[in-house]
């Protein structure tokens, strides 16, 4: 099968899953409420820390205004991260329908990557946009400010696209691990929780202890949320952007290769269950 | 021979909890492993254009054989050659030339119209646009699903869905079609429609078909050759009438119940 045909098939799969994801509009709206609710709570907490802290507060070079913007961006991008394995695929792994997927003349890894990433994007893009819009409409003290500069905004968009790719590749990497049907859900939840914590979605990575900063810059999960958000608010200067985008790209390729290798090895021994 | 299997063997491990009063606790630490031989040396050959019924009790190894022939399950030992290739070694090339219908599994996308699923399959199999259009029209006309194309799959009845599944499996003009219980759960009318369609496709395009089923009317209506499998071994390979003579000469089949029910339904204009 040629590369071009694979791409065409992926595009087609992407389109159909995206259309499916779009159907969950009620879920998107309720998701916005959750995100905005959490966003406001975080705004209040950080305001308290910044303003009323008795000891000097190590803000890692991030001002309160920047932190407010960071919070809303993080809430908006939160949906891109997989918190569980694509439901459709998990169902197939459990029920044995994986056999039907293997009857297609296609590389299963790219088949699933296209499907799961499209399902994710279809379900969350509306939620993300509305959350960010809500952030921009907050009272001045909690508001999402415009980007640091035009260049910062352009780089933010590039990093956002890479963040989507990286989240998708990581989700597929975890899915490949899950294909070993005798394991259950435990390991995959641990992997996804770890990535969530290290992405900066809970606590901006700048606010972590200084001695961890070197590690935090190089680890894969900052690429989910932290790198795009920092580019937007300007704590990551445009001149450092290339290195940051490089980190995102590097981990993308690494997860892609590793996930594909794991899936290929597993498929050799996979047991398709049931009649 | 288009399909050739030679001494195919496949075993599965079955994990069992230890018995006895402390079985539950013990089971948390140790498991008894039992090896079940699903296929215990299966050999047969099928020529081009044959329509073969593959029957046997539940758990006999029918589906396992179909999975091996589809290239999605690797046997422990034995040779299998289809179009001169080993299915699981060249899976992608192999599956582009076969069609598979699993009666209990769907290959259509649940939430979108049937036509959308077909279009995705078109791209996956790389069917040229003109050919796709012609083939789709031909299949839809033959099996009568034109009016369903815009309906989301979740709103189809089982019979309607199975017809669409068949169209999906045949869009890329496979030379071999594996059918795993295609008529399961269908009403008499849908069964007859499905059978007529399979027969026509076999005769017109010379598609080789292997049909596993528990419905002997399927076999009687479609297959000249029957293979019976039990406990992973091939027990009989020959004509259906031969099977009757060999095992149950006293049984005489006269009534075709499906025809009977179908004519009742149509008399009462239920369909």
Question: What would your notes on this structure say?
Answer:
- The complex is a heterodimer of chains A (275) and B (271).
- The two termini of chain A are 30 Å apart.
- Chain A is globular.
- Chain A has 275 residues and is an all-alpha fold.
- Helices cover 69% and strands 0% of the residues of chain A.
- Chain A has one domain.
- In chain B, the strands form 2 sheets. A 6-stranded mixed sheet of chain B has the order 5-6-7-3-8-9, sandwiched between helices. In chain B, strands 2-1-4 form a 3-stranded antiparallel sheet.
- In chain B, 39% of the residues lie in helices and 25% in strands.
- The chains are: A mainly alpha (275), B alpha/beta (271).
- The interface between A and B is medium-sized, with 27 and 36 residues.
Concise account of the structure shown:
Chain A is mostly helical and 275 residues long.
